[in-house]
Records
---
Amino acid sequence: MTVLLGLPRGERATAALGLAALLARSSRSDLVVCAVAPASWPPGLAKIDAEYQEYLNQASQEALDSARLALPADVATSFVAVRARSTPHGLLEVAEKHSASLLVLGSSSTGGIGRVSLGSVADHVLHSAPIPVAMAPRGYRCRVGSTVRRVTAAYGATHGGADFAAAAAKLAGQLGATLRLASFAVRSGPVITAGVGLHAEDGVLGEWSQYIEQVQRDTLAQLTELLSGPPAMESTIGYGRDWHESVEDVGWTDGDLLAVGSSSVGPLARVFLGSRASKIVRNSPVPVVVLPRS
Amino acid sequence: MASLRAQLLRRKPVTAMAEETGADSGTGELRRTIGLFQLSMIGIGGVIGTGIFFVLSKAVPTAGPAVIWSFVIAGVVAGLTAVCYAELASAVPVSGSSYSYAYATLGELAAMVVAACLLLEYGVSTAAVAVGWSQYLNQLLENVFGVRIPEVLSAAPDAGGWLNLPAVVLVGLCALLLIRGTSESAKINAAMVVTKLLVLAMFVVIGVRGWNSDNLANFAPHGIGGVYGAAGVIFFTFVGLDAVSTAGEEVKNPRRTMPLAIMIALVTVTVMYVATALVAVAAQPADKFKEQEAGLAAILQDVVGASWPGTVLAAGAIISIFSVTLVVLYGQTRILFAMSRDGLVPSVFHKVNPRTITPVRNTVIVSVAVAVLAGLIPIDLLSEMTSIGTLVAFIVVSVGVIVLRRTAPDLPRGFKVPGYPVTPVLSVIGCVIIITNLEMITIVAFLMWTAVVLIWYLAWGRRHSELGKSERRRARTEEPS
């Protein structure tokens, strides 16, 4: 198993490096750190482009060097610099070449501290990656030598939910972590002038909770049957007035990883975030891994 | 199996209701946060603004200019019943609709009758306001773009069209919003209240310039009977005052706040209605009201001699009627939801879509039914049907207050009817007088509808009632010992 880290250019990629090391350490696999630079233009009349190309190569090398310094020593790491017509393209090519099982990216620098936000590369990769994509919140730090302890699967109980739960369980197994199924509900207020009381929505939510709890129980039972030596499993439901509250409600600790499934409307076996998954990702206080639909 | 009498009178324990709402979703904590102002706004927001936009075309031909007294009568009766409603609601420390209150205090049969009334009231009034919306939409389209939706597609078959398409579209839009999951905060409600009051105030201020005392000369051409008859027609413009009562458990100092809020809401609304009606009947002769579409806008345009006031009023009406359609459609789905959880209607009504966390199938079924009503039935019939449903539900509630005072005198009540037993008795009498002055066809249709619901209950609901099931389970476990 190989973890591939797409190194962001021109930044100290501490968060992404930390997450990549954490994942590689947890799954006892190699780490490949990759810097992608734009491909050179076709050879022209006079090689006026050469200096710029030299500069790009150097920048990649510098990024890799500083990554080398920042990475902990207990993870077997190799470093690659490639040229590609686009960063996502280059990353996916390297992933294929090294048969990587996980791709790690940094959060966009435009997002808030402590939140996962998708940059243009992540957005593009999420639409085309056939392997799980992990992203760290901005400013993410983990303890030296720590591993992933729990994978929380954001579970929607919709079509394909069971497959997603199985994939998450498999990932938890690979990372040596426990599995937690979490469903999230955003509680909407009632329509106050409708004359049906101020708690009309509680009944609806209660009905939904009952259903979700049942589905979660069934899924866990199914997983226990399906997997040999399944990880320890639990389930929970988060409530809140908005997505932020609702995601926060399930409780998070050090060593948590949030797994979301790609939308069922995207092409098969590609990750692609649906509207709810992207809201959950945006509000996640812990690193996120997006699993492709199997 | 329990005797029929026991089945009809079985009541839902309040503890079970408390468990159903909130306990498992972490919302059980109740805080008394609603003050007098907010509660009054809930009352005004629940009542005002839709019926008044189109009810005059039916009420004025019935009563003549004396229609203003019809508004006062309807307002007084609505106030009496709202007070009774508040006591019943306060005896059940769980929030819900009058259906749930009746189930907890009066038994399953009464709950079923109230449910029949509510389904009629909510379903038909949604359809009625949707039809009114289509009139104002047409007015706005004509004023702004100079086009109208053809008569064939904007009127019910009986009113010379084929299908009232805008009304159907409106119901569809509201259904979509409800499926997505929508809510109404106190702020939105306040904004809607202000919009509606401003629109009506604009009508009164501008319309009063067209005052012509000659129009009031023949004040009550159809006598007192006409006044009562019109009161029945317009009673549904007071529907929604019960929203105040259903907020009871979160109201600060309910004993004082509740009646005050009902009074404030009622006085505000009645004054607005009477002023609007007075200006309208003074502005044009009574016989001109008959079958006048988008009436208030049309009157303003005649008074000013330009189209802009009509345009503004139509725009305001479109916004406020939209919000009310949404609210009432929502109420309808949630009442069915509660009934379905109690096992009195099929379980499809309480299936919650796991993705949207809303009762999608319920909403779709209700919307289709309402859309059919709105598309195919003319507005006059719809408004009377709404009124009778509300009136009968209010009678049950008022009688329920008296019954409960006798059968459970010690039950803790957060709010007691002032002037008992005169108030509930007057409330019943008022409702009965208005009902007897409705058109025969309305009463017959209502009785048929109630009969259908009761037959449904006897044939299906009685056996599937969750309450009955749990009683039977208990009986079975106790038997061997």
---
Amino acid sequence: MAASAGNYTPQELMVVCAARQIHDGEHVFVGMRLPLLAFALAKRTHAPNCVGLFEAGLVRDIPASRLLYTMGDLANITGSLWATRMVNLMGLMAAGEVQLGFIGGAEVDRYGNLNTSMIGPFDKSGGYKHPTVRLPGSGGAADIASLSQRLAIIMQHDRHRLRERVDYVTSPGYGYPSEHGPAGTVWRQRAGLPRGGPAALITTLALFTFDPGNGEAMLQSYHPGTTIEQVQEQTGWQLRLAPNCTETLPPSEQELQVIRECDPEGVWTR
Amino acid sequence: MSKLTTMADAITRYVSDGSSVAMSLALEPLIPYAAGHEIIRQQRRNLTLIGPISDVLFDQLIGAGCVEEVKAAWVGNVSEGLGHCYRRAAEHGVPHPIITEEHSNFTIGLALLAASLGSPYIPTRSALGSDIPRQNPTFRQETSPWDGSPLLLVPALHPDVAIIHVQRSDEDGNAHLWGNLGICEEAALAARHVILVAEEIVPREVILSDPNRVLAPSFKVRAVVHEPWGAHPSPVQGYYERDHAYYREYHQRTRTLEGFQQWLDEWVLQVPARSAYITKLGEQRLLELSVKEHSYAAPVDYGY
């Protein structure tokens, strides 16, 4: 893959990082916005046999022929492999048929737990009333985080969003260490989650992977134009570097071309 | 027996103060905005709203003061982000406080599925370890009687009424719905009453020609309302596209309470019925949103 010398936006690089998480032949819970473009990019580059699933009740093996604002836009139904009930899609995922799921979040913590419900302070024993910010809620995010084999998280990087601990766990990552044991895969087993956990956290500044042994995020790569120090400055926990931490491979010309064909007006990528 | 009636009559008869109402069940498409706006005009109060993702319909009903409780997975604006009325109600109790019973998309689907099956609950492993079961007091965490593993028990949810937008229906409520189905079937079967809102009213023979495409048995249906463009600004497969500009405008105009009240006055309170709403949208906008590239299914043979 030849590195690009050209200009690209942080969103375009995030789409590229997301697409690289998709392996050929996988069943991918696609979600909205940037992952939609990542699915289209992966299909047209390294993963021509991946299949996209949409919780509204859709399965596709060809990306929609025009840019989508929501998964329910008309073009996403035309030419789908299956248009069905939501519980069928969630059921496939609960049964282990979905290798990768994408979600975004307002807040994430060092253990990959995500919050899209509410930002505090609020009284957890008194009915969670009067949060400072009421966010929309889970949608399908809690289900994707619980039931997919691997989770990829996409979000804007700043210190208020990447926190030591989120106020509310909408979508479980690797939990927290406690007197019962460490965070990580064993926490998920203790909680009763059947599989999974975050594999990647893709931000506007960096890519993190996770250590399933203790659930901690590790800085895997920092995007061109940033430094480890800048990433640390914008991250609410003490960074732990992956052993081979390096600069993120920039988008290739081909990757940028595909993204710009899919989103010519830059609705999601500019 | 014809169940055809007006929207005003259907809402008067089947949505009362305090009713639990399931709406917006196909997620982003087929959202019964016309019904929601009539509920606002009739000043229903203390409703419980049930649904997965409502785009901005639930936000509008909350802002208009119709809602006491929300049992939903998500309330906001799908293409624009947060729901300003939902925020004002949850954060500051404006226009009055609301109760939220937190769900995920899967758990709200399972709650209605359980009701549709006559089952008291359905167990799942989804959302275990999250704060959702802590916030929603109706969930119970138990262990599997087979292997002792943790399970989340999602109790059956029986809406008083489900309001479902469909492409076409006959006068009795035999109806075709196509595209992604979301949790429309589960809700139609779980609810005590079903109001259907149809783009077209067609002869019974049209529906019976393709029974696999039927939403639910018509004996569940109490009222059928013929309301072309009744789901605008949400999309209806084969009829019209999502009106993204509407959602953008709504997001911008409803940032403040005063802005929302002006918006509500202009688009709901001063609009006596859907026919006036269509006129207000204007020919040009309708034309832009109308489906232009039709894509028909191959016929199937139900012969014997």
